[in-house]
Amino acid sequence: MNCSISGLSLGYGDKIKMFLLSTPPGMSQHGPIGGFRPTDYWVPRTPPISCYYNDYGRGDGFKEEEIQKLWMEGLKVDLIEQGVGDNQCHDVPATKEMSFEDMLEAVQEQRVSVESKLGRTESKREKEEYIPPEHVPHFKPISEILEKNGHKANHGENSFNVDNVSFGQVRVRVGGYSQKEIDLLNQIKPLFDEKFSSIIINGGLGSGGTKSIELRIFAKPETEWYANPIRDERTSHIALCMVRQDVWDALLKLSYKDWWTEGEHNVQTFYDGMKKFHKDFSEKREKIKNLKELADKKDKNREKYLSEIFLLSLKDDDYNDKNPILYTMAHRSHDFAHFTNSLREHYEIAVEKNLLSDSVLSGIAEISFIESIMGFCRWKWMPTSYAGQDPYWDMNVKFHKVFADVAAAAAKTRYDEDYDYDD
Question: pTM score, two decimals?
Answer without folding.
Answer: 0.81
